Amino acid sequence: MTAQTLSTRRVEKPWGRTQLWPAFDDPAPGAPPIGEIWFEGEGDPDLLVKYLFTSEKLSVQVHPDDEAARARGHARGKDEAWVILAAEPDSTIALGTLAPMTRDELAMAARDGSIEALLDWKPVKAGDVFYSPAGTVHAIGAGITLVEVQQNVDLTYRLYDYGRPRELHLEDGVAVADPVPFTAPGAPAEPDADGRALLAQGPKFVLERWTGGARRLNLPAGTPGWLIPLAGSGHADGTPWAAGECLMLSGACEIVADAGADLLVAYPGTTRF
Questions:
Q1: Residue 189 above 80 pLDDT?
Q2: pLDDT tens digits for 114-145?
Q3: Order of strands across the sheet with 92-97?
Q4: Distances (CA, A) of 39 to 28, 44, 94, 187
Q5: pLDDT in tens, 12-28
Q6: What is the mean pLDDT of residues 206-231?
Q7: What distance in Å separates the CA atoms of residue 243 and residue 85, rounded to the nearest whole number?
Q8: pLDDT per position as a tens digit, 236-261
């Protein structure tokens, strides 16, 4: 088994914040806001883990699926899941459209700005989980702290950006979009007798939430896992971890967490291990 502590990359964003999640140091006074923290290792793994901190709405955007992304020379498309850690009382996330639209209608709405009112803006709170498949038209709102688990590709098509002077990708985005209402899954499962709760299962990855305690995770050869501690501390086969870090796991792994720990565990595929 190998447990590797991934490096962190702080990404400045105009829509970011200067007050982050408790596990992270805030930017220095006068420094640009931080919008994302990425966890990175070697190679080209299937998944990427990020924290996001929003003070403004993110652009209305869409991601291609595997087939469309590979046609453009990328290794994979982009499904993603969000675990909401904190949200202001009026925070929302747009997922899908209020009614089915044609791609021509979507393009027209993006050009004239009416797309914002045609999206399904859902209220969010701490503990909510959303799995957003490739092709879903979406936008993350302001006042949210979340963990994002996604297929590992930096490929986003912006459809609309509220008049900000950033590049849009209207033709590419409309071509891969599925502008229909989003069917949200039910509430996340409660932890089982072993303290593991299933948050999302496929089609590209499994995402679980674990309480404290000692457990064994048996990953098949060639299937890595990601351990994302939200609170608490512990070790994975002797490699220490604490909140705000992220570890990549392989093989059979003994994970020990203190009683107050709160962990996310992710791995590619559709099968739970």
A1: no
A2: 999 999 999 999 999 999 999 999 999 999 99
A3: 119-123, 92-97, 138-140, 60-62, 157-160
A4: 21, 13, 25, 27
A5: 999 999 999 999 999 99
A6: 96
A7: 13
A8: 999 999 999 999 999 999 999 999 99
Distance, in Å, from the CA atom of 167 to the CA atom of 179, rounded to the nearest integer, reads 21
Nearest to 86 by CA among 130, 133, 20, 37: 20
DSSP annotation string for 108-130: HHHHHSTHHHHEEEEE--TT-EE
Residue 272 among the catalytic residues: no
**How long is the chain?**
273
Which residues contact residue 42 at a Cβ distance below 8 angstroms, ignoring those fewer than 6 apart? none
> CA of 136: how far to CAs of 139, 172, 173, 177, 212, in Å?
10, 14, 10, 6, 34
Closest CA to 61 of 146, 142, 155: 155
Which of 17, 76, 158, 209 is flagged as catalytic? 158
